[in-house]
What does this fold into?
Amino acid sequence: MPNNLKSSKVWHKVKLVISYMLLAMASYSALAQRQEFNIILKSHLFYPTEMTIPSNKKIKLIIDNQDDSVEEFDSFSLNREKVLFPKQKSVIYIGPLSPGRYAFFGEYHPSSARGMIIVSGAELDLPADGETDNVN
Amino acid sequence: MFTFLRQRLLNHGLIRSLFCFTPLLISLVVSNAVLADGVVVDKVYHPYVLPNEREVEWRMLAQRENGVSNDLAQRFAYGQSVTDNLMLEFYLVGERDSNEDFSLSAYEIEARWMITEQGQYWADWGLLFEVEKEHKENNWEVTSGVIVEKEFGRTSLTLNAFIIYEWGDTLEDEMETEFRLQYRYRYLEQFQPAIEVYSGEDYLGVGPAFMGVQRFSGQKQLKWEAAFITGINSESQGHILRVAIEYEF
It folds into this structure.
């Protein structure tokens, strides 16, 4: 097969991949609004230790690390790992999840920094939707 | 039974998402643009990078075709995240030649860039760039590509689509495409079964895989992966075993 023909086929595929990427990102940046939930990490403890969120919805979890040391949020069941820098707020996007209990912990202080996300199928009395979530 | 299964898949958005991916899959899987001069099977990359991440990695690839060839390649790597979302990795590649001698064959630098936060959008996106040079020849290979991962409940679908350009003293200049797919069930932290598909350079292979992670204190963790890939078209006979072990600290 001539080289220029091979190159044109490859270029066609590149354009297709880029189109998909831009389309997906554009559509979701327009639609993305998430309910926000807040957790504080202080003295290597999460407050609150248990939090209930709605099922089958994406939510935005904001963790305020008030400690002087770095921590790493970790949860196999939530499929999330996130470094929590000291004196900073970090955002973790979670869900959509089916009803159940999802444990999380801090990798540097696993015996004290522990918590639970409870996903409820029932209607929850939740705060109003948060702002647009294009921040980290 | 089938109604229940269909409902489960719909609930997870799998069918809808596969529908969205289908043109991408077809365009990449039905790739016949290049001659076979390399091995397509390797690691399926995930788009995630953590700050302060450092790792050492060993990868092994053994290929056996019709009881004739018995190729072996190994990679040793050191990687480090240099920003919150950019990971650099340096590789030494060793291969066993036709005289059964194992020696350094190439070196490589790789950059993996996490471009969206995990879970923020419909899927998670990353980019990969690699430059590889053969040790004894003035032959080069540059790879760039897209990494996509989408979560469906307790399963994750990961797609890698790469464009590769090769040139050098003993290589014909050519552009190639490669496609890798992994569908993983996050059953247990230490045992996550998966199916992997590899396509490119006239090769099409599929096979089972498993991976896992054992956590230690802090950021220290040991990850492992293994897959047994079988060629399924007329030009991809034989089997490939791939193993990867990674220690993060």
